[in-house]
Amino acid sequence: VLDETGAIVDAYVYYCDGLDPTKPPIPPLEVSGLQYGTDMYVQDTASMTVQTVEMAGHNAYKVAVTSQAKLYVKPELVANKSNITFTIYIPSTSTGKFDGNGEFMIRVKPNESEPLIDGGLDGHIVFRTKKDKPNVSPDLEIVFDEWRTYTIDISNLGTSCTEWAFYVATGNVVYIRDVVIA
């Protein structure tokens, strides 16, 4: 913006990727499976952020948590289904825990509707490392710095599920992709 003498009053510098018309625009990254913003959502965006990134050769949702928070799956998507499958990558820097109960969990409400796969019927399906719990089921074992695919039988939920959420401990970052309910 110039004033009446021709001096610059306000200077603006714009940084754009689209200045060269010979280069096609970079398409947004797509993550396979359920979609954040339509099928999955966050209630407390101050505690949890979700963004689409490329991680270890795959497009994924980067879920970063400043204080424990949940990435919700719309419960109506879970109703009357057989299983949920998802793939997660947890970097070795994400070692925050829920009072010793693992780096991430799945929260199911009501509590009694939880598929009894981790030994307790408390509304939480807890994922742990062998270091934390040597006898952890391989179906729930966390291995840092590699993609792991988990499948959970949800056939007993019927229509009673009012909450299904990926619950991440304070300070952790997890990458999630290929969330599929069948």
Task: Write a compact overview of the structure shown.
This protein has one helix at residues 75-78, and strands at residues 40-42, 48-55, 58-65, 69-73, 83-89, 104-109, 124-127, 147-153, 163-168, 173-181. By secondary structure, the chain is mainly β.
Question: How is the largest sheet built, in terms of strand order?
Answer: 1-4-9-6-7
Mean pLDDT: 87
Q: Can you count the beta strands?
A: 10
Note the overall shape. elongated
Question: For the report, how would you describe the main beta sheet?
Answer: 5 strands, antiparallel
Give the SSE order as H and E letters: EEEEHEEEEEE
Rg estimate, integer Å: 21 Å
Query: Uncertain spans, ≥5 residues at pLDDT below 50?
Result: none
Give the class from helix and strand content and strand pairing: mainly beta
Task: Measure the end-to-end span.
Answer: 58 Å
Helicity range of the residues?
under 10%
Our estimate of the beta-strand percent is 25-35%
By DSSP (H or I, 4+ residues per run), the number of helices equals: 1
Could you characterize what this model shows?
The relative contact order is 0.24. This protein is elongated. It has one helix at 75-78, and strands spanning 40-42, 48-55, 58-65, 69-73, 83-89, 104-109, 124-127, 147-153, 163-168, 173-181. A 5-stranded antiparallel sheet has the order 1-4-9-6-7. Strands 2-3-10-5-8 form a 5-stranded antiparallel sheet, with no helix packed on it. The model has no long low-confidence stretch (mean pLDDT 87). A hairpin with a 2-residue loop joins strand 2 and strand 3 (58-65). Helix content is 2%, strand content 35%. The chain is mainly β. The chain starts with 39 loop residues before the first strand and ends with a strand. The longest helix has 4 residues, at 75-78. It is built from 1 helix and 10 strands, in the order E-E-E-E-H-E-E-E-E-E-E.
